[in-house]
Amino acid sequence: MTNALIFPFTVYGTAWCGDCNRTRALLAEHNIDYTWVDIESDMAARSLVQDLNNGDRSVPTIVFADGSILVEPSKAELKQKLGID
Fold it and tell me: Which domains, from first to last, does the chain contain?
């Protein structure tokens, strides 16, 4: 069961990032809707990611509706946050 307090959420990343692609594949595998923002083409999103990560462009940075954030989560961390097996 998923936690309604964390949906919807936004994944900030880049097309070339392996961790971003792994995250997107996991979400697709579980049919989980999310908003994708490429920080290479969206400068405001890039600034947000840098603000959230002490100046670093750490991706994926995932921002949930409840205000919580995951940065470069492992598959296990993301699954736990989303309440999926």
Answer: 4-82 (3.40.30.10)
